[in-house]
Amino acid sequence: MVMAIIHLAYSQQRPVTGTVKGNDGNPVPFATIQIKGSTTGTTANDNGIFNLSVPGAATVLVIRSVGYKAQEITVGESSNLQVTLIADNKNLQEVVVTGLGLVREKKTVGYATSNFATEQINRVAPVSMMDGLSGKIAGAEISTTSGAPGASNKVILRGYSSLQGNNQPLYVVDGVPLNNDRPGSSVDKKGVNNGGYDFGNNANDINPNDIEAISILKGAAATAIYGSRAASGVVLITTKKGKSGKLKVDVASAATFSNVGMLPTMQEKFGQGWGGTFILSENGSWGPRLTGENREWGAPVDGVSLTKPFSFVDDNVRNYFTTGKELNNTISISGGNETSTFFLSYGNIYSDGILPTDADSYKRNTFSARASTKYGRFSASASFNYVNKNAKAVSTRSESGLGSSLFEDIIQIPVDINISQFKDYKNKYYNVDNYFTPYAENPYYSLYENGNNLKSNRIFGNIDLKYGINDWLSVQWRLGADITNSQSKTYKAKNRPSLDSWNDGNNVEGSQRQEDVGYVRENSDYRGEFNSDLLLTANKKLSSDFTIDGLVGFNVNQREGKIFTSAVKGLAIPGFYVISNSPNTPVSQTQEFRRRIYGLYGQATLGFREYLFLTVNARNDWSSTLPEKNNSYFYPAVNAAFILSEALKLDDRGVSFAKLRASWGKTGNDAGPYLTKTTLSTGQIIDLPFGTLDFPFNGIPGYTVGDNIGNPDLAPELSNEYELGGEVKFLRNRLGFDIAYYNKLTKGQILAVPTTPSSGYASITQNFGKVRNKGIELSVNIIPVETKDFTWTLNYTYARNRNTVEELPAGLDQVVLNFAYDAKFVARKGDPLGVFYAPVPATTPDGKIIVDATGLPKAADTDGYYGTSQRDFTMGLINTLRYKDFTLGFSFDWRKGGVFYSGTADLTYFVGNALLTTYNDRRAFVVPNSVMQVGTDAQAKPVYGENTIPLTDYNYDAYWYHTTNKGGAYSQRIIDKTFLKLRDITLSYSLPSSAARKIAASNLMLTVFARNLFVWTPEGNTFIDPEVSNYGNDLNSEFGEFRSMPTTRSYGVSLKVSF
Amino acid sequence: MKTYNQYILLLLSAVLLLGASCKKNLDINNDPNNPPLEKATPYVLFPPAVMSTVSCAGTDGAVIGGIWAQYWTQSNASNQYKTIDAYNIQRTDYNALYTQMFSGALQDYSLMLKLCDSLHDYNFGLMGTVMKAYSYQILVDLYDQVPYQEAFGGLNQLQPKFDRGDSIYSWLLRDLDIALSKDLTVTILDENAAQDIIYKGDMDKWVKFANTLKLKMYLRMVNVNPSLARTKIMELINSGAEFLTDVDASYSTFKDAPGQDNPLYESNIRSLNTTTNIRASYTMLSWLQKNKDSRISKIFRAPGAASGVYYGINQGDFTSLSPIYNKSAIYRQTAIDTAYLISRAETNLMLAEADERYFGGTKAKAYYDAGVQAAFQQLKLSADTFLLPGKVYAYPTGATFDKKLEAIIVQKWASFPGTHALEGFLEQNRTGYPKYSPVYSTDPSYIPGQLVYSRNGVTGAGKFPKRLVFPDVERSRNSNTPAEVPIYQKVWWAL
Q: What's the predicted TM-score (pTM) here?
């Protein structure tokens, strides 16, 4: 009888539906629903809705989702269940966005992901979304390339693999790729960085306050489905959306103040002059010992000279800079009902950097509107974003005959001359005619008289339409566009030292400063990206043990741009900047491009009993930039996740969670546009040692065979990567480890490889080379203390990447990627990608330095190795201490190893300002451990003996300069780039919700913070923060810096209120 | 399952349809910014190629030549050309000259000549051949060996072999003879004539240029192959060939505007922050002063502080802080200075030498006088008073051949400062004039005008520079680059 009743009960199956929500009211996708005591169950869909047949009202369902505490619920009589899961704080963020904006449980993916929520991203109120994440992700090097507001961000995931300098990740916003170009910024051309302007990269335009979460996908298995541009990883951005419930208003407001950070340490002993002699017009400190006595200095004007003490000026360079101010405000309104939601936000940044005036400033307005609606099986959502940007950036490179570089002007001023006084740059002693030296310009002149302004308008957004064909199959079309239009104007003043003035050659050295002829450049820059994805997605439980979800899709992506530049040198009316205000013909150039990709892709995940997941994906692309015969390429990937803790029920044995991951994947990449054919070129086609000759030349048109050989046989570049890893958590999640090992080989890189000039060309676009990156990433999370009132959390990350160039094109032993003077940044077989070679001293077989007839080291015939740009390892440590409503956080970022070229070191050595130039107290010395040629032997081979030629006043300075001490100077300039930074400190106070409610707020948080408060560099680097670069934000930037803008440290306060 | 299959079918057919249109839609990879190679004509290629040659010879070539021929020296108050003045040139220093010459100038001549062949345009064919020979000669004279037969292979030959300098000379001379033998009477279209930026399509002048270039190249061989030089020069002159005795091969329509001006001015003045790098070498200055040569004020400019007195810097003494050096004279140049390829002065002086060598010297004085006169005329001066019997530059009619040759070559040397300065250095290598001084120019026994070993020379006393080292751009990319040769080793034709 009992049997019969049970049988009856089972036969009385009835369907129930339910919705799983979190305690924040949001649906929890993909929760598992299991009938207690059986293996029967189902999985909720991405909106948290599930359908299940239950045997009766007494049935108990167990609802689980990672990140939440398991919940049991009795079905009862209702056929519509509402389940609220309570977040399990320790496992927050365990739902990840994976391929194409699809949300999946983290446990189902077989590769490493890092996820950050809005609080983490915005803790220190950054202008750019990646700024707050420096040093916090194992395997991601995130840097800001200068302290200027809005400066470019550099994000490198798992090392450099592309020689062509395309190593930035692909940014994807809500499933649609984002343009990350750098409109208006200087482009490197043959080692020349015109003007060195940096207006930031486009990914910085996103308002960080609009971001709900960022997921970082590093490996090929994770990124392959994104297509060609995902080879260097993907940064997935999920924006904030409206939620059903009452209207919500969020306000985030921050004010930040910045000061200049690390500056070159100057020597304090010797003053203006050269060769030990005081010389009034010199731009260096190679003069006599500082005495403190009053001396005349500078140009005499009307026969009268200024006087000042001949003594060191403290904080001289530092005093040039002012306090930067930044205001960052965002207000958003969101809400919705069961079927529709909306989100509106307005953000405003006003940032004026550390230079006097607003020559370094960044103003940004962002407006976002997002909405979604559902109607039966049909749902639609749309997002619209508008960004308006107004930026000014100073020139970090001198442009010959046009104007100087600001930082060059500053750091070459003798240590006894007070820089700040020059602010009065029109004063008769400090003006163009009588500034103390003809070799540089007053550093306030260019600040006030030269400048630029970039105005940019950008619209990006998407439309997403979805139709559920049945309960497990749906079709989705997502259309996105990203359009940036920017205009910039750059102007440089015309100035010429008046006839017979001090700087016209009427100084003690008879040296004349070349006039600046005046300059205007108008630049109009359009970039557009259009993307369409048509997706068919399936999510089905095959049996009680097996689930399957998958998709197939078709992608069309088009990128295009048109950059028009017109510039004229020489102005008719000074101070008036239009192209026609010149006797000269403007040089105009248009760069137009368009490229298109079609991609067909598919992905399927097979799940077994909630603990074994296997994902297979594959994509085939057809690209317009490759030759027709090679334009199709296929790349598959597979990954597996095995949740040990679930399979073996380890929960009871103190292991809260354990998972093994394995993946293998391929990614493909196409070429840049127009590389398959050789062309003619015109314009600035004749490079002189300085300057160019331009065609049409005096009215005569002309074309020359382009320098680059187009290659009709180009093939796509392919990477292969496998990854192994695991995650384990002990002691109720209080101790967690995540470890990954990866090994990636990139083959057939597409690069303009330098060729011998006698081939008739300077370079050829070629597939070549192999670069391997392998490494390990470790993150450890520890909660040493956890009580009701006090929690201490530690997050530690460690990453070590080993990079090797395994192959180069036949016949080449190296490819020069970048250079300054004779310091070369190269790819060499067997070395890491990006190593330094430069002249070294010639030595005898027993290692003694051979000097030339002047006593200076002779350069050896071949260059020597100076080190790699790659790190030994990077480490991050985040401490978070919460006491009641207060939270204190601080994080360290340590990047160990590697070298960089410092142009700041070069110049401060040259002018005798650098600390080390007081070597031997500037008394005569013989180059240590050196010999000179004393004769020849019977075979006419040189015979060496003791070096008896001291370097004295007259050529002491030559020892510190690269043209005069070619062999020895580069070890002074290529220096260790290790640093340890205290990235941020934050102290937050959250008003208890009971108190918040009294002011009608649901939430209030006040934070005081500091960013980059402290930088430590090793002894060899007394010059500049090695994170900076004015060589862009990719591989080239690893070369170093050329008298770049220093970094800043900043302090601020932020307030976040929700109503 | 049925509906599922239908969807798959639908999707597949959609993909196939799209696939068909894809092919066409992917054919968008034609550069809209630069014309394809097939659009090239000899007429658009020629002007930039000529300006490339002029620029290579006229910037790096001129500065190296001008410092090594000791017209100029590096200012002690700045740095730009210290490595040249210290004979410390390394393989990475003058990549630009080599690169520009090969991939800027010669590559375009080479394509131009192919196009001329297929168009049967022998006029531009001669122009291209002359300019190619002129450009190649500079490379051979500076590097001794460079790729020739395997050069300009593009994709097909990325590791060209080097050829001997004398072979290259012979091939260039053969090409000149062939180009000269063609029918040059076809009228040139006006629009094409405008593209001949040297002579505006005047083929008579091009023939003179070709003949003069042949003369120059054969004269280079007098040390290594005297009999060939003799035969060929006599043959050339006896054939009644005309030379550039009455017209220069030059470009003179520069404009005082950025990118449109004399390349040495653009590079050394307009595009540098200090305009006073190139100062008067005491070597040339003392010679001009000794001879009271009126050219001094046209070649040099005494700065304000010097109160009209011309001071020179002893060659290579850039580390000195001598206050006199601060007043040293500056090389005077303007944006519109003529850039000479072969000057009238040079031509006449070459003919004077040839006449002395092979024709008994009967016409040598006339050529010499015309040459010196032309050299002065270049600077809008007259040499009349200097050439009169008994005056400083009078031709030493009765003297030995060596004395006469010295007079000829020294006058030629004095005619070159400017974009043509390289030739002064090369001719010194060929003839040994001006002579090397046994003492430095500060020594009381120093004879003005004799070349002294640089004060900061790194090669060792007396080891004057004779060539350039193979540049890094070639060595690092072409495994066929010959072994390094020190810069004090002479090239194949040198003395």
A: 0.86
